[in-house]
Amino acid sequence: DAKTALVTMCIGGGQGLAAVIEKAEA
C-alpha cells in the first residue's frame, strides 16, 4: 500500500544518502 511504498522509498533514499556521504568521505 501507500504506507509501505513510502517506507521503502525512505529506506532506499537513506541508503542512497549513506552512499553519497561514504563517497564524499572516501
UniProtKB/TrEMBL annotation:
The lineage of its organism: Bacteria, Bacillati, Actinomycetota, Actinomycetes, Mycobacteriales. This is Thiolase C-terminal domain-containing protein. InterPro entries: Thiolase-like, Thiolase_AS. Signal peptide: none annotated. One of its GO terms (molecular function) is acyltransferase activity, transferring groups other than amino-acyl groups. It comes from Corynebacterium humireducens.
